[in-house]
Design goal:
With 194 residues, this protein is mainly β. It has a single domain, classed as Jelly Rolls (Sandwich), CATH 2.60.120.560. Helix content is 11%, strand content 41%. Strands 1, 3, 4, 6, 9, 10, 11 and 13 form an eight-stranded antiparallel sheet that branches. A five-stranded antiparallel sheet has the order 2-5-12-7-8, with no helix packed on it.
């Protein structure tokens, strides 16, 4: 009887040790790229006037990018962004040239509600995929959840699935946050390698 109790207690302990609250282990796996205090994970390129104000990195003039110092192939990226209505911004992933980021050498997950050609507006991937829904993001905080794994790219905006494509043009590279026009702010930028 004593042996059975020890076995049961042992199995119970193993079960407790292996239990994680939902989402906890996934959260622990993320690397914080920007937590509101510094831009140490990035190299700025261009002349955008990036500054940190109240835990948010923002720009409202010039043109440029914050490019991660690290390269990523398969990853899960989450972040929050705030833009005004005319803002032009984007999240560039698998950037082939970290010194000259553009929509022809990277996948650009767009942030541009008022883009003249609405095909690749906010939520779409420029030159690759139109968003499945029209979401107006100006004047409020929004969240992007971007998964890039092998040839598959999934984009979720504010909980809505916007893009799910297969493409092999770009295999790896840094991630870049863009400032192009208007007022653009980012916070809670995190990445998890897959």
């Amino acid at each position: 009887m004593k042996l059975a109790s020890i076995v049961v207690l042992g199995l119970f302990a193993i079960g407790i040790a292996g239990f994680h609250a939902p989402g906890l282990s996934a959260q622990e796996d993320f690397t914080v790229l920007f937590d509101g205090s510094d831009l140490d994970a990035f190299n700025p390129i261009g002349d955008a006037n990036w500054e940190i104000v109240d835990g948010v990195v923002q720009a409202d003039s010039g043109s440029g990018f914050l490019v991660t110092k690290e390269s990523y192939s398969d990853f899960h990226l989450t972040l929050d962004f705030w833009v005004d209505e005319p803002a032009n911004s984007g999240i560039f992933v698998r950037c082939a040239d970290p010194t000259s980021v553009n929509d022809r050498n990277s996948y650009e997950v767009n942030i541009y509600d008022t883009r003249a050609d609405q095909t690749y507006r906010t939520g779409g991937i420029v030159h690759f995929a139109a968003p499945s829904s029209v979401v107006m993001t100006g004047g409020r905080w929004n969240s992007y959840d971007i998964r890039v794994e092998g040839s598959r790219i999934l984009v979720t905006l504010n909980g809505l699935h916007m893009v799910d494509i297969e493409d092999t043009q770009f295999a790896d590279g840094p991630i870049a946050l863009q400032y192009g026009l208007g007022v653009v702010k980012f916070r809670n930028v995190r990445v998890r390698e897959l």
